[in-house]
Specification:
The chain has helices spanning 3-17, 21-35, 41-56, 71-89, 96-105, 114-117, 124-129, 136-153, 156-169, 178-194, 200-206, 213-231, 239-263, 274-307, 310-319, 327-342, 347-363, 374-403, 405-415, 419-431, 434-453, 494-497, 516-524, 534-542, and strands at residues 368-369, 372-373, 458-462, 465-472, 483-487, 502-507, 527-531, 547-551, 558-560. The chain is an alpha/beta fold and 561 residues long. Helix 22 links the parallel strand 5 (483-487) and strand 6. The two termini are 52 Å apart.
Length: 561
Amino acid sequence: MPLLGYWEAEFKYIVEQVILHGNKLEVMCELLVGNLESGDRLEALIFSAIYLKWINTGQIPCFEDGGHPRPNRHAEISRLIFRELERIYCMKDTSLQEVLSIRKIHPCLPSFKAEFTASVPLTRIRDVAHWGDIPHDLKLQIKHTIQNKLHRNAGPEDLVATEAMLARITRNPEEYSEAFVEQFKIIHHELKDFSMLGNLTEQLESIKESFGDRSLSALTLFLECKERLDNLEESKDALDKSIDLLLKTAQSLNALREVIVKGLESSLRNDVPDAAIAMRQKWRLCEIGLEDYSFLLLSRFLNALEVVGGAQQLKENAESKNVSSWNGPLGSLFVGIRQLGLSGWKPEECTAIGNELLAWKEKGLSEKEGSEDGKAVWALRLKATLDRSRRLTEEYSEALPQMFPQKVEMLGKALGIPENSVRTYNEAEIRAGVIFQVSKLCTLLLKAVRSTLGSQGWDVLVPGAAHGTLIQAIDRWAVVKQILCYLKGAPGDEVTAAGNNIKGVVLLQELPHLSHLGVRAGQEKVIFVTCEDDDKIADIQKLNGKCVRHNTTSNFPVKDL
């Protein structure tokens, strides 16, 4: 049986015949661990990452079957899967694609620390369900919707039920006793811990005891910066302070994640105790959590940068030979590139780019470099590094479509996953990751550099050449063969809406290379450029309805035939 067909049949069997969350994990463990030693290792990891994510997000439901497997069964299976994944992660021949897949599986595994591998875990709910001073109907509801479910078939949906119950009993502060509410909050925290869904601060605090003195200083600095950032009031007066604090927090995150990654470099020994494996799981989840948090920091930094003038302000400062304002954006880009390297994506290239960024930041702008204008040399040097950074993001965005789309579509169809969830899976993986923010930073900085150099204002997202009729796309695509189009805005689905009619697109605004439209254009092999120059935009609009040639290598990509 072809590999895709094999996996389709296996997962369809799991969904139709295996309804318990624990049993799904058990069958997954057999399929995953059984294929990690074979040539099908990458496929096993990719399919497992997709399937486990859909379980955790509720796309694939779990039901009861009348049995009574305890939650410790989930924990024991999770430990076996985790151990195998870590072994593969640390092997020298593990591919970048395998590393990316493993990183997507880890957050979907339940915790297996000692309290969850005990013979009867999560027993506090039994006492709460028989609490003396609560109404009888509430006792019954807790017993039937949470207690019995946890003891028979614990799953991701139990945390949702517990959150709903917690919201109910805390809605009116005086309705239930403080002691009862406090115990229920502890239960909610235990379930979050079991599902590895605690917030980043909680996760980091849980590994604090395992840090040495030098490592502890990195953890303390990051937590202090994060707390200050969380408490910072948003106001115009605080904007400069916010930008500085965002950068400092991102830099402290970088340092802390480097410490954790260093601690995870060595593979697990065969005789390692269970407690050490459980602590390693916490470290791994903290390391992945720091990567996720860096996405938020870079997003906030970009938003703040746009408020103070964005690319235009950077260009004006460069024109006046004052490039100190570039230090923050370049520092943020350094953080983003370093995060990609720590996640296993072309670490040598990430290190090289990072070293270039630090070197150009240190060198600054000179009045003259030899006989050349110092500003031009500075801008060209920086542009080369930014182009190199952009290529790194594009290589990443090209790797994901090779890994996921076909498998997501096949598995989604077999398992009855909503079409929208299937369609947006791959794009969401890109846009929710650090790579997306790095791409946006590159776009902003390259725009500023091009303006400083007085360049043409074209940005090529998908290169190529074609000819056809130029039209302006508004609400609906015209059914015309071999058309080229230009857009004033980018709502989202323009490229694919026209099927095979579209041969090229000119977008009259800037757009990150890993934006929704940019990614879809690359997948559909549609030539795609953006233009922000008002004069060139006017020239393009004069060609509306005419037969034109679209060539991204020319000085003016759209010409009248």
